[in-house]
Each structure stands twice: as structure tokens, then as C-alpha cells.
Amino acid sequence: MPVYRLTKELVFPHPGLANKDGLLAVGGDLSVERLLLAYSNGIFPWFSEEDPILWWSPDPRCVLFPKEIKISKSMEKFLKKGLYKVTFDRAFSSVIGMCRELREGDTWLTDEMVAAYTRLYSLGFAHSVEVWFQDHLVGGLYGVSLGKCFFGESMFSTKDNASKTALIAISKALEEHGFLLIDCQVYSKHLESMGAVNIARKEFLEYVKNGLTKETMRGSWSFLEQ
Hints:
Layout: E1 4-6, E2 23-27, H1 32-39, E3 44-45, E4 54-56, E5 61-64, H2 73-80, E6 85-88, H3 92-101, H4 111-122, E7 126-133, E8 136-146, E9 149-157, H5 162-176, E10 181-185, H6 189-193, E11 197-199, H7 201-214
């Protein structure tokens, strides 16, 4: 399949036209408008610093249904100890900064990407989960919320079980408020161990469509304020 070159026009080809690796298009920009259009159509940017902007829509798609989060017995025991504190949207810049720092030399989080998601955060579309040990940020994740869908972007951990704690916390909060899914983008054994599954792209796009018709484009996160 051909890879489409984007122009200044705010448009994407249909996700079903992606090649077998999920690559759909190249070029364009990381404006708020283009990013929101991309996520609302099951598309996300992912590229290295030396690459042009690359847009993806893989098939199958790895997702986590919030109610199906897996918590092992050992993790349950760990959480009961109450060693960590979880907050939401308290330290977005620090979270995305740590996601970048810990992947230095092998990351898609270029200056341009960090700036783009920081703009989304300032407008209420991007959000973060922070995990604290005492006063130290030891884990977290960030992503984009549209309607009843949360599109996870990256997570990090500097202490045992910190990223797991973040994923469990957001899954429980989103389940309580009717979110349909957490987009994990690409399969990993770690995500599978937490309950993530692969679904067909066509099915994923149906979930996104249904999630965006139930609410406004901007996901309401007032219930996550702590």
C-alpha cells in the first residue's frame, strides 16, 4: 500500500489504507487541530528525531478495557501498603519529561512532540497520572482524552510497581465514569499482563466512533481532581 504524503490541508486518508506495519501517512504538522483529528480517527504520530512526522494506525490495535485491568495478588498486597500516592494532572511536564529522559537515545519524544502535547495539556485534551513516593515522582503516564476514550502515549517508572500503580489508578477511575477503552497502540507482554488485548482496527474505530458521539470531544476529567 502507498504511504500518503500530507499537505497543509487538514485531512488524513482513511486508516484502512495503512500499510501492513500500520504506517499511514508522512508529513503535515503537530498542530492541535491535526492531532485531534488524528486521534478522533484512530491515528497517532510516532517518529524519531531524524525522521519526518509519521502517522500510524496499526491493525490489530492493542487496547485495555478499564474494567478488565488485571491486578495480581502480589500487586494487590503492594497497593494495600499505601507506599505511593497517586495524583492526576499535577505534574504533566515532569511526567512527559521523565518519559523522554528515561528513553534518551531511543525515543519519539522530540522537542516538537513534547511541545505539541504540552499544548494539548494546556487546552484540557492531554492528561497525566503521577505516582509519588514521599515527595518524589517515581512513575506515571500521559495521554489524550477524547469523549469516552483515553489514548495512552507513554509511561515511566523509577521504582518497583510505579507504572503499574498509575495504570491501575487510571483504569479504575475511567471505569467508574464510563470510559470505553484505553488505547495502548502497540502490543507488549507487559501490557498483556495487565489485561490489554489486541482487537481488529475496524473494531477499534467503532469504539472510537461510539466514544466520541456520547460526549463532547474533550473528555471530562473533573472527577480525577485530587
